[in-house]
Amino acid sequence: MELIELNAPYLLFVGDAPDLLMAKTAKGVAHWRPERCLAQLRYPESPVDLGLPDMDVASAAAAGAKTLVLGLAPFGASLPQRWIDTCVEALAHGMDVASGLHIRLASIPAIVDAAARYGRRILDVRNPPATLPCGTGLPRSGKRLLTVGTDCCVGKMFTALAIQAEMAARKLPTSFRPTGQTGILIEGYGVSVDAVVADFISGAVELLAPANAPEHWDIIEGQGSLFHPAYAGVSLGLLHGAQADVLVVCHEAGRSQMDGMEGYPIQPMEQVIATNLAMARLTNPKVRLGGIALNTSRLSEADALAAIDELAQRLGVVVVDPVRTGVAPLVDAILAGETA
């Protein structure tokens, strides 16, 4: 798989993001790769704070920043002009510019011209390989885990990264396999499956997580939800291409409505589990549930622990919050299931 190879340190662009959800790419990079992050660049009206020093382009360049990373996604089909101006300024100060946007920076003449003029790189990470295979569904060696969700933006990437980090800390052979722009910017390679033509999604995931040593764990980042009317197709392609041995279901406590989808409620956890397992069995009849990752960020500590306990008791599975409790009990259950 082609490596992205961003030059560090980064200046994370937050721009005019109104909240952390819109700036989740910047937040993810800052959380998982803090050693690569120098500063944040936010416009005066943005309340988002990644906990990094505030710098403009000139001061960040003087401090040694090598790459401006666009850490959010705009609404609409074009980039705001001042975002473009900031990219051009960064290129003029000797930085590369990296982006996970659907809008390709390489399609914006002002940015392309500036990159050529100053000899800098444009890195569009949401740009899948030109040739991808169709999925085969053929068995392949190694172990694979896929995070799936009740909805979008419930913690699938965070959970996958936390599981992979916990396995690595236990000296297990393991790799994180990114399938979205934030994961790619964190790991430095991957395939943004939401930019792949539908016929090739499962094949792209087979390529991303190929046959490996029998004891090796690939932890594959999930996308969307089988129950989301806009993104279910991507989720299904991931399920089939991952050929997962284990699924971990991710959910945000307190969320009852699909994100941005009026009239589409979150489905009962029992139905989410059963449907994901049924779809995954097409390419791996032995797939099993590893447990549930519950995002309790909206709850108090007491309410969070109560919600975790209630769900665990009701379903008879391990439930964790990767932030509050860590994922060690979940990894214990996943590994114990190998001999169950």
TrEMBL record:
Domain D-glutamate N-acetyltransferase-like N-terminal: start-end pairs: 50-128
Record-annotated D-glutamate N-acetyltransferase-like C-terminal domain positions: 139-331
Pfam families reported for this sequence: DUF1611, DUF1611_N
Origin superkingdom: Bacteria
Record's protein name: DUF1611 domain-containing protein
Record organism: Pseudaeromonas paramecii
Upper taxonomic lineage: Bacteria, Pseudomonadati, Pseudomonadota, Gammaproteobacteria, Aeromonadales
